[in-house]
Write a structure and sequence with these properties.
Helix content is 29%, strand content 21%. By secondary structure, it is α/β, with parallel strands linked by helices. The chain folds into two domains: 156 residues, Lyase, Ornithine Decarboxylase, Chain A, domain 1 (Beta Barrel); 241 residues, Alanine racemase (TIM Barrel, Alpha-Beta Barrel), CATH 3.20.20.10. The strands form two sheets. Strands 1, 10, 11, 12, 13, 14, 15, 16 and 17 form a nine-stranded mixed beta sheet that branches. A hairpin with a 4-residue loop joins strand 13 and strand 14. Helix 8 packs parallel to helix 9. The relative contact order is 0.15. InterPro entries: Ala_racemase_N, D-amino_acid_metab_enzyme, D-ser_dehydrat-like_dom, D-ser_dehydrat-like_sf, PLP-binding_barrel. Keywords: Lyase. This is D-serine deaminase, pyridoxal phosphate-dependent.
């Protein structure tokens, strides 16, 4: 499912100043050579983002067991980390595929030998679609699925694939959206028309239905949960309609899921994997949650169904920021050397975890404003502050190389790996 040799080869890359916060003493060394010296976190410069090895392994195991027990397949969204070494962990734990958002991301995955990819988006870029046609024709083991939500998308894809001389049809999931949502056909009738157009295209193959329920709610209020349930029920009904109409040429998939409502996906859709409709179409339910491998101390720590208050085996945050006090310009205020270019902020500001009664009130490009009750003895210049973070999808994209530590709670954790990201 992934080329292990290609992933392992990342360890031979040479470290240099382009790798933010890596110590200058490591420049010129291959990654495996540097790690053989058993470096400690204190050797790295600040600011810094780290991930905890044990916590990631725990999260991968928890999610794999939960999906297996629930009767669904996992195709974790690889855009969260864009890290092949972490995709490998997910695939080795039983993930069915890797989901991605853009054709360029899919090309990265293919360069590391990922054999089954779901593109949770429409693909109408002529250059990208021509590449895909060639990749499918040249590699019979490669399985690829993308989405369509309009007849114009079907026509555009068909025309581009015709021009490219494609011989293998591209598998298509029809995307159902919702009012005020993101992409997706806005009604089941519109979605059925798209499915019929796909079924009639000689270059496309209808394989399922799906969408993204996270666009319809941002909390777990009764209203929000009801909106998600209603949407998922509509996705399930669309599948039944297409099945009854005989539009599937073979086995089908139903796909949904972010990292906020995977319990509702199982609640409303998992049963489709255990039954066959009028025409006996074998159906798989595919969950695309991506953030679970990292989790967080912010948005997902509140909304996920897999937190201590909602689960006996919860996920735990595997990422932390580390920033140093560089200025104490006034009482009760410290400026840290980490800002928007280093840490996520779109789903909540970082939270100090090593200083009591303190909070981050703002981020500039390269600074964080740490405020606390007036106390000149708190956080003197040079103090390193551990930060809880929110939203891994906008944390990883700021780092080319992320240290993996053995224990985030240790006084000076050991760095056991360096994760390459591709953004």
């Amino acid at each position: 499912m992934i080329d292990k040799n290609a992933v392992d080869a990342l360890g031979t890359r040479v470290l240099g100043p382009e790798h933010k916060s890596v110590p200058p003493s490591a420049w010129g060394k291959e990654i495996h050579e540097f790690l053989a010296q058993h470096p400690r976190l204190s050797q790295f410069q600040t600011p810094l983002l780290t991930v905890d090895d044990g916590r990631m392994r725990h999260n991968v195991d928890v999610m794999a067991a939960w999906a297996d027990k629930s009767g669904v397949k996992l195709a974790p969204h690889g855009k969260t980390t864009m890290a092949p070494v972490l995709w490998r962990r997910q695939l080795e734990a039983g993930a069915w595929a890797i989901t991605l958002a853009t054709v360029w991301q899919a090309q990265i995955a293919r360069s590391f030998g990922v054999e089954r990819i779901m593109l949770a988006n429409a693909l109408v870029d002529p250059v990208g679609l021509t590449w895909l046609a060639r990749e499918l024709d040249e590699h019979s083991e490669f399985e690829f699925t993308c989405w369509a939500d309009g007849i114009d998308t079907v026509r555009a894809m068909t025309a581009i694939l015709d021009k490219a001389g494609a011989t293998r049809p591209v598998d298509i999931v029809v995307e159902l959206g919702g009012e005020h949502g993101r992409t997706g056909a806005r009604s089941k009738d519109e979605a059925r028309a798209v499915a019929e157009a796909v079924a009639q295209s000689p270059r496309l193959n209808l394989v399922g239905v799906g969408g993204y329920e996270g666009a319809l709610s941002h909390d777990r209020s009764e209203k929000g949960l009801a909106a998600v349930r209603n949407y998922l029920d509509a996705v399930g009904q669309l599948h039944r309609d297409l099945e009854s109409a005989g539009l599937y040429s073979g086995a089908a998939i139903i796909t949904a899921g972010g990292s906020a409502y995977q319990d509702l996906v199982v609640e409303r859709l998992a049963s489709f994997a255990d039954e066959q409709g009028d025409r006996g179409v074998p159906t798989s339910v595919v969950l695309r949650s991506g953030a679970y491998i990292i989790h967080d101390d912010g948005f997902y720590s509140q909304i996920s169904p897999m937190i201590p208050s909602r689960s006996e085996d919860p996920l735990t945050s595997a990422m932390h920021g580390w920033a140093r006090v560089v200025s104490r310009p006034e009482s009760g205020l410290a400026l840290l050397d980490a800002g928007k270019r280093d840490l996520p902020f779109d789903e909540g500001l970082p939270t100090p975890q090593s200083i009591d009664d303190a909070e981050i009130t703002a981020l500039n490009d390269q600074h964080a404003f740490l405020r606390f009750p007036d106390d000149d003895a708190t956080a003197p210049v040079g103090t390193v502050v551990r930060l809880g973070l929110s939203h891994p999808c906008t944390a990883f994209d700021k780092w080319r190389l992320i240290p993996v530590i053995d224990d985030a709670d240790a006084d000076d954790p050991r760095v056991v790996d360096l994760v390459h990201t591709f953004f």
